[in-house]
Amino acid sequence: MPDRQEMLVIPHDQLSPEALSGLIGEFVTRDGTDSGYTRGSLAENMARVRRQLDAGQAVVVFDNRTRTCNIIPAETLRQAAD
């Protein structure tokens, strides 16, 4: 988990629909990680992540150090702030 000061939260509703869809698609199909999104179809998994973003259970972050975007649980972000 990157240091909290290196992360910038990006409101997902400020991303274009295409950018958000691409980010979510990359997240749920990412190799080498255990995202927990392996049970449903790609569309189902993407919809589940979108619902989590809409509900505030997950957030989009930009890591200034690596210059990458990621989706993380909101709780993880809160813990990093402590």
Automatic annotation (TrEMBL):
Alphabetized InterPro entries for the sequence: UPF0270, YehU-like_sf
Pfam families in the record: UPF0270
Domain of life: Bacteria
Protein family according to the UniProt entry: Belongs to the UPF0270 family.
Protein name: Uncharacterized protein
Organism encoding this protein: Desulfosarcina alkanivorans
